[in-house]
């Protein structure tokens, strides 16, 4: 028996049987027979990509959703395709359209050998039609790997909810695992095609082959005589090639153990989800979840009027089964992976295997008394401890993973945002600013609020930090942030100056010289703090120029890097600049979650990088 980290999932009946682990192993030593197993010793003992893509270790749902083009609200339709298939042939028709329009080079689908699912890669329209009927037992995704070996570049994949979750983790792997992929003994990673479309199927669970065989034996049926299987309203129907129907209660079929801990009925991570629930007989329900999923409207005539409540009932049914399984496991002291808590932002794991939840900080760290009370109340409710972060955010620590989801939902209910963790724009840090600090030149709270509204939880290749300082004292260290913003006021001497010298006394950088009855400013030394303007008793100094000095590409941590000053800009330009920097950063990053902005700027060339940012702003 080989040591393998995934055994903690497989041996505890937590495995979803999605087969994702098997297709990403660069050494091809993970076999799959209902559940995965090692064929030979793994030098990493499973501490690699197989573990990191497993959707039962963690879903990665939050990070995937913020960067996957998901709609704020999914759209529900029903329709039928132009070919015979399960409940209207919508999936088959969509795949045919994608192939005809050259949007994909092939499709990874499930075929069959006597109704035992077999993973297939198809490029021919006829082959797609032959795979058009549902199989309700375990199918694998090994054809995805085959497609890569064949040189196929773009594919659509049809899969069950667990498989779609695993495939999404592959798509966004560097952002979740903090490395680009596992290198095999031959010095290469597994070559997989780009998954352009993920099409999910409604699923209550996968049945064990032997339980289906028992049901068939009751009616003296053979697999080779079967035309199709159907599941509706709690019944399992077998239709033979002769047109005869045999119906059995679903409870006579046995689910795989790993399906009992699944809570996703309608493949919520797919671009498009398809199933029979909620639509008229002979039609399919279509749920469009992403911008890319909109393409199905070009392939299938869709209508409104889906019975969404019917779908919600199935979701509730699956969720109740999930909760019963969790409770049973807790009573028996069985392992629970709590994979679902990463569906939420701001959730992190502590060294003692409890969790913390980070509440995204308020602009400039200002909280009302009532907000503080509510945070304290929630922390006390779940026995947590409170930590105040250096960005003015609250973290609630020592939360048992079973309570994480309830706590996050309670925080959301009370208007708090959980997040500011992982590869995204973190809470904008700001000093008290004008109106609060005597040195403040700008309203930092208002600017932080505006940046937060535009870039709150905005996806980035790595953590992306922004700081706003109300004056050149730079109390919040803007020069060592990815984007640092500083309010400045440069002075101009006017005719009211009488050479009293008060401005020179005030200036901390000795940029003012008094000669005779007037004062002079050395702009090579002046930092634009504006103190001389405020402090002149004769109103002999006025504002020559004011605005925002911006730094790009700074960082702290193991290595401190100072940002590049790009000069004075207007308030309206700040938002375009941030967006431009994020776009160019995302374009050139080679190692997400390993390359900070400053590293990418250095590799590309600071001048070239900033020139491209300028072009982005102009566009």
- Give the CATH topology of the largest domain: Sulfite Reductase Hemoprotein, domain 1
Which parts are unreliable, with pLDDT below 50 for 5 consecutive residues or more?
none
Overall tally of structural domains: 4
Q: For the record, what CATH class of the largest domain applies?
A: Alpha Beta
Q: Over the alpha carbons, how many angstroms does the gyration radius reach?
A: 30 Å
Biggest sheet architecture:
8 strands, mixed
Number of helices: 20
Widest sheet: strand ordering: 5-4-6-7-11-12-3-13
Shape: elongated
- Helix and strand content put the structural class at alpha+beta
CATH superfamily of the largest domain: Sulfite Reductase Hemoprotein, domain 1
Mean pLDDT: 93
Q: Give the percentage of residues in beta strands.
A: 15-25%
Number of DSSP E strands: 24
End-to-end Cα distance:
60 Å
Task: Identify the CATH architecture of the largest domain.
Answer: 2-Layer Sandwich
Helical proportion, percent range: 25-40%
Pfam families: Fer4, FrhB_FdhB_C, FrhB_FdhB_N, NIR_SIR, NIR_SIR_ferr
GO molecular function: 4 iron, 4 sulfur cluster binding; heme binding; metal ion binding; oxidoreductase activity, acting on CH or CH2 groups, with an iron-sulfur protein as acceptor
Protein name: 4Fe-4S ferredoxin-type domain-containing protein
Domain 4Fe-4S ferredoxin-type: 6-35, 489-516, 517-546
What labels would you give this structure?
Nuclear Transport Factor 2, Chain: A; alpha+beta; 4 domains; five-stranded mixed beta sheet; Sulfite Reductase Hemoprotein, domain 2; 619 residues; elongated
